[in-house]
């Protein structure tokens, strides 16, 4: 990941290094509560429905509490039948956002901050990238999370 914009003195060109070859994608799955990151997983390559179900079953459901609300968007991998069953068996409710409504998803703001930090780090190896992801997630404060929930019209009191 490289920065999207650069600055230079007037009349000069902004210069920077960008890798010529792209490696495999690293997909990041994360669950965010009002207080903290509940669960997170990094996966090499793309995420399919089965992988997402495994994330929900093994990492999110054990950390859910009674009457918790799990909010997902309408991505195809989020629509599996087992996902609803797993979440409701844990005593939580599953709510799907309306299509094309990222303004109601605090996780979008979370990823915006994490990715901005990752662009500054300029990790060029997988090991450096995974360490940078961990470090960037630790830089997200509880105050950031509360503000994102309020910004997305969720009561954070």
TrEMBL record:
Gene3D superfamilies: Ribonuclease H-like superfamily/Ribonuclease H. InterPro entries: RNaseH_sf, Tc1-like_DDE_dom. Residues 2-129 form the Tc1-like transposase DDE domain. GO terms for molecular function: nucleic acid binding. This is Transposase. It comes from Hyella patelloides LEGE 07179.
């Amino acid at each position: 990941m490289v920065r999207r914009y650069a600055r230079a003195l007037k009349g000069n060109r902004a210069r920077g290094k960008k890798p010529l070859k792209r490696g495999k994608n690293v997909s990041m799955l994360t669950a965010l509560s009002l207080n903290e990151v509940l669960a997170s997983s990094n996966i090499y390559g793309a995420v399919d429905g089965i992988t997402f179900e495994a994330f929900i079953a093994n990492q999110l459901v054990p950390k859910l509490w009674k009457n918790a609300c799990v909010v997902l968007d309408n991505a195809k991998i989020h629509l599996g039948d087992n996902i609803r069953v797993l979440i409701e068996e844990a005593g939580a409710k599953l709510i799907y956002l309306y299509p094309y409504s990222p303004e109601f998803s605090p996780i979008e703001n979370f990823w915006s901050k994490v990715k901005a930090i990752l662009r500054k780090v300029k990790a060029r190896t997988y090991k450096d990238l995974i360490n940078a992801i961990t470090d960037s997630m630790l830089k997200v404060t509880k105050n950031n999370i509360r503000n994102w929930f309020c910004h997305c019209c969720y009561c954070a009191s």
